[in-house]
Amino acid sequence: MPESSETAVRDSQPPVTIIMPCYNHAKWLRRSVTSVLEQDYTNKKIAIIDDCSEDGSIEEALEIKMSHEKDCRIDIYKTSSNSGPSVARNLGIQESWESTLIFGMLDADDTYLPGKISKSVDKIMENPSVVGIVYGDAILENHLNNTKIYEYREPYNRRRLEQNCTMSTQNFITKYAFSVAGLYDETMRTAEDWDLQLRITENFVGVHIPEPLSTYSITGENASDVVDMEVWKENWQKIREKHGRD
């Protein structure tokens, strides 16, 4: 049953869970978690979902949990097999469903900048029955050549979103929006975020915050580098078929 819009957000700090899928990101994980712990938002927890990493990510996650158990609740889950980000995120969302009203997305090699959670939640609280997804700008950190680039994301426009993935992936999504639109499509290993954004904005609006509130890491191991182009083409075609794009 969809959550009632009346239960979307009531408190000044509604409970937030940061969903952090992790696949072979052991060396980045502590940096990512720290960026969440340092946020000026107290009613939060972190769900780390290890997608059967082979680099000791699960051990690193457990060590982080032990060292910060007094600072923030950190839950750790593991997929039954390496299944991709959609499966990992859905596992974290489902396990956190009963205790969460707003979900924040953050891959384990990226970070939140100060104010990311509080500013995103504030936008949702302005009209929680209408706003389903909030996103901001970002700083692209290229760890291959030690450069940084400001990435501007354009304001929400449904028509533009149908043409291109104009939102960032590090967005905040209400439980109410998920209950109406459904979770991530587990058959998609790429472009799954775009598909979800299109489904959410069939019934809700998106809100853009025009300032950098997160960082994206370019490491040479991103999906655009390691996932075969045929997989990308297959998922782009799936979006065209599902959402009537030409």
Separation, N- and C-terminal Cα atoms: 33 Å
The gyration radius over C-alpha positions equals: 17 Å
The structural class is alpha/beta
Oligomer: single chain
Q: Specify the helix fraction band.
A: 25-40%
Number of helices: 9
Proportion in β-strands: 15-25%
Level-2 CATH architecture: Alpha-Beta Complex
Overall geometric form: globular
Low-confidence segments, given as residue ranges, are 4-9
CATH topology: the name is: Spore Coat Polysaccharide Biosynthesis Protein SpsA, Chain A
The CATH superfamily is known as Spore Coat Polysaccharide Biosynthesis Protein SpsA, Chain A
User: How many beta-strand elements?
Assistant: 9
Quick check: average pLDDT? 90
Description:
The protein has 246 residues and is an alpha/beta fold. It has a single domain, classed as Spore Coat Polysaccharide Biosynthesis Protein SpsA, Chain A (Alpha-Beta Complex). Helix content is 35%, strand content 24%. The chain contains nine helices and nine strands. The protein has helices at residues 26-37, 57-67, 85-96, 116-126, 158-163, 175-181, 192-200, 223-226, 229-243, and strands spanning 16-22, 44-50, 73-78, 102-105, 111-112, 131-142, 147-151, 172-174, 205-218. Helix 2 (57-67) links the parallel strand 2 (44-50) and strand 3. Helix 1 (26-37) runs parallel beside helix 2. The longest helix is centred in the last third of the chain and has 15 residues, at 229-243. The chain is globular. The chain starts with 15 loop residues before the first strand and ends with a helix. Residues 4-9 have low confidence and may be disordered.
